[in-house]
Design brief:
Order of helices and strands: HHHEHEHEHEHEHEHEEHEHHHHEHH
Bound molecules: zinc ion
Distance between the termini: 50 Å
Helix content: 40-55%
Structural class: alpha/beta
CATH topology of the largest domain: TIM Barrel
Radius of gyration: 21 Å
Low-confidence stretches: 1-33
Shape: globular
Largest sheet: 6 strands, parallel
CATH architecture of the largest domain: Alpha-Beta Barrel
CATH class of the largest domain: Alpha Beta
Number of strands: 10
């Protein structure tokens, strides 16, 4: 990646004087503050990479394999996964929500038990990553803990739960999941559950599901109340439009979309309409725009066939290939798909920043953030692994966002919402 050299005379001055709004420690000014600004102008302009390394960057959606922290999925090594600790460090990604994801299964006793067991394995995997690397990464349960970890020079791991299904038939496990660090909950995944309707049919990225609950069920509405009381952010990524609007209306606190796209830019069931974006913003929430190729462009039949060809060539034919293949095989599969880019251009960083621009123009800069969905199918041309993260900052700066605005998008908005959710719960206790 080549970085554009961008001139920021004011920022140079600010960095030299140590007065940026950025959260991280900036080097102490060499001269005392009484030195005339003229002297500071001699400093070379910071590159976008330097600006990126100074700000606090947070990705709200990083999927993990249940094998995280075992051989073949060792986060301490620069290995085949899109996210590991060395690549987080080199890519200047300070913090991430690591995901306890459970796919939608049957709403019966065996289904709930299997879902709970899977959630348990994911929590254990994240805990393993942290306990094996205590000098590198800290499990954080509050925005203050996150900022403190980063100020100490460590990486921060927060936990998001994707799909309320493993909470049990009556969210029996909610308190336990909170105690283990779950701080946002996506109400559904692909397929409806007992809490409400999904944007998509079960097991399908692209299929639209016929409504069952027409939004959230009574149980889903009472779950929102419990999330508010505990201090868990309500996440409307993967919910249907009716569910999203119902969740926003019910919640006493701002809600998030942890990894979503913009319907006006590409009409996909997973993307949010203007009405949803406006509702989330009106409540003070934030939409974390996701770098997910197939939510950002129409794929031709030839393109789909070419991707399928790559998969079959690698022997990835089992229905649950994504869960069972080794991390190295998944890495090679992604590389194979990326190699098709010349023939079938994928979505790019430019498309991702278009979606950020769209939200900023529609509802304001207070309501936009960024999510990769790395490990869960995420990644676009130019941002295929966490080490390429500075390229996003570069594009935002190139489009005229100030470094302070870039940091607001990278972490400030999400941390604001999280703090509000936490404060509301605190006041209820
Ligand atoms: Zn997802």
């Amino acid at each position: 990646m080549t970085l554009r050299t961008i001139q920021y005379p004011l920022l140079t001055l600010a960095l030299a004087l140590g007065i940026t709004g950025c959260s991280k420690e900036v080097p102490a000014p060499e001269a005392n503050v009484a030195t005339p600004p003229v002297a500071a102008k001699a400093e070379p302009a910071p590159t976008s990479d330097q600006i990126h390394q100074q700000l606090l960057a947070l990705d709200t959606h990083i999927d993990i394999p249940t094998t995280l922290g075992t051989e073949g999925a060792d986060p301490s090594l620069d290995g085949p996964m899109q996210v590991d600790l060395p690549k987080m460090r080199s890519g200047g990604l300070d913090a991430g929500f690591f995901i306890v994801y459970v796919g939608q299964g049957p709403l019966d006793e065996a289904g709930y038990q299997a879902a709970y067991d899977e959630a348990e394995r994911k929590f254990a995997a994240i805990e393993r990553m942290v306990s094996q690397n205590p000098d590198a990464i800290v499990l954080v349960k509050t925005p203050a803990e996150l900022k403190a970890a980063v100020a100490e020079g460590k990486l921060a791991a927060a936990i998001g739960i994707e799909n309320a299904y493993p909470l049990g038939p009556h969210y029996e496990h909610l308190q336990e999941f909170y105690d283990r660090g779950g701080r946002y909950l996506s109400l559904t995944h692909f397929g409806h559950n007992h809490f409400g309707d999904s944007s998509s049919a079960k097991g399908e990225q692209n299929g639209v599901a016929e409504p069952v609950n027409h939004g959230l069920s009574e149980l889903g509405l009472s779950l929102i109340d419990e999330l508010n009381k505990l201090g868990i952010m309500v996440d409307v990524s993967h919910t249907s439009k009716e569910s999203t609007l119902a969740a926003v209306a019910r919640s006493k606190t701002p809600v998030i979309a942890s990894h979503s796209g913009v319907k006006a830019l590409f009409d996909h069931p997973r993307n949010l309409s203007d009405e949803e974006l406006q509702a989330i913003a009106a409540k003070g929430g934030v939409v974390q725009l996701v770098a997910f190729d197939s939510y950002m462009r129409e794929m031709s039949e030839e393109n789909k066939a070419a991707v399928k060809g790559v998969r079959e060539q690698m022997g990835l034919t089992a229905p649950d290939w994504y869960k069972t293949a080794s991390q190295q095989t998944l890495h090679d599969f992604r590389a194979g798909v990326a190699a098709l880019n010349e023939q079938f251009p994928r979505a790019s960083i430019s498309d991702l920043v278009d979606s950020i621009d769209y939200v900023v123009k529609l509802v304001g800069i207070d309501h936009a953030g960024i999510a990769s969905d790395f490990g869960g199918g995420g990644g676009v041309e130019g941002w295929d692994s966490v080490e390429q993260t500075p390229a996003i900052t570069e594009e935002l700066l190139f489009r005229g966002y100030t470094p302070e605005e870039v940091e607001q998008i990278w972490s400030g908005n999400l941390l604001r919402v999280w703090a509000e959710v936490e404060a509301y719960a605190e006041a209820q206790r």
